[in-house]
Amino acid sequence: MAALHPSRRGLFVVASLLSFILILSGGLFYHGHTYTLSAVDTKGSQPQPAGLEQGDTEKPTPSFIFHPTKPSQVKSFPIDSPGSGDWTFEAKDHADNYGLGDTQCDAAFPDMYFEIDRAASFWKSKRNITLTDVDISWKENGLVRAMIYDRQLSIIEPKYNGDGYDLRRSLAILSSIYRALVTYHGPLPNIEFSFSVSDVPDPDHFGKPIWTSCRRTDAEEEWVMPDFGFWSWDIGLIGSYEQVRQEIAAAETDFRQKRPLAVWRGAKNNDLRADLLRVATGRTWSDVQEIIWAGKTFFRTKSRGQFIKMAEHCKYKYLIQTEGASYSGRGKYLQNCNSVVIMHKRQWIENHHHLLITDSEQQNVVEVERDFSDLPLKMDYLLTHPLEAKRIANNSVMMFRDRYLTPAAQACYWRRLFRIWRDISFEPELYDDIETEDSVTGELRIEKKLRGVPYQTYM
Prior knowledge:
Blueprint: H1 6-9, H2 12-25, H3 63-66, H4 91-94, H5 102-108, H6 114-124, E1 143-149, E2 152-159, H7 165-182, E3 191-196, E4 211-212, E5 215-216, E6 223-224, E7 232-233, E8 239-240, H8 241-251, E9 259-266, H9 271-280, E10 286-290, E11 316-321, H10 331-334, E12 340-344, E13 348-349, E14 366-368, H11 375-384, H12 386-404, H13 407-423, E15 431-437, E16 444-450, E17 453-454, H14 455-458
Parallel strand pairs: 4-6, 9-10, 9-11, 11-12, 12-14
Antiparallel strand pairs: 1-2, 1-3, 2-17, 5-13, 7-8, 15-16
Helix pairs in contact: 7-13
């Protein structure tokens, strides 16, 4: 059993209160490269597809001029399909409901589970997942082994580095899992699993079926889970996911009133970002600047004037997203803005990336080359075709902010992950058999000992 870390003891009371609040609030396919979006309802609070508003006169230009990439395989994206029975997902009412029922999850987020189905399909084509697969002895740190049994989350083995970074991320992921459990009243399976809290989950390519916040495009054996930021990014500059969404809602303005600039802030920690700085610096449309960090959670004094809070990004029309050490956790925050998100071609996949549409009338992101060589051309087009830019931004809001990146969607994703994982894995053991010697008779006997540390105690 893992010993309690000193930094966790002070959180016990807070965790207990959180558990009580969460329990109360609970009342409240893989198709290869031809993945087809199902019909989803976008009535009520959902923004309508961008088109001509009062005062708009420009006719949008065909998107094939804008995107010389292979056309999307998406067949349709209807905007007025029914929900489940008389129930319809409304972002303003249901976005923060962590306890949606199964039929509600399916009706609200029919295309949410591509990455789960993809991983399941991969493993079903090979074999079932076994107890050996969840062993984490193959890596020194950045992994956690855990179990859900009778709806109780237990931590079996944590492996952290020495700077506390892994610990903070793991607590965020464990808290998201716990929240998905206690806000839901239906049956859930018993499972045992291991997850990564490292930017690069499997640098030596052991091929393990770990749960991870992102995967390389060729790492088909990995299962993508919601990342730690959906609970909280524990630096004062960001905060909890719900907090960021509230700040964004307060900062949002009409698209036409936003700054007509492409904004990016970040560390120059890879060639991608160096290319972006090289291509964008000095352009009239660019507000691209490097941030120099002095540690994991703070930056050097001379960078303070260049920093932009997450919600303040939404005051710009164009938001550039780059990968970092692997993926970059800021992408989901940018996609909460009613702005045009510009991404380079990706090597790292998150749990919602299959929903990115780079062309057609449903386009919700602008894709550029990995070296950003075509960024000036794309920006020139966006600036001279504002209605097309507004349509892309509105499509992004419909798909991500008001649907698939809502807190409700992530809770549904967790519970689907639990179920599909169990379908091809094993029933975990609740107890370890411990051999002990009777102090009087000297006889050996077997005692049952609960495995792991309950989440409430671990916190």
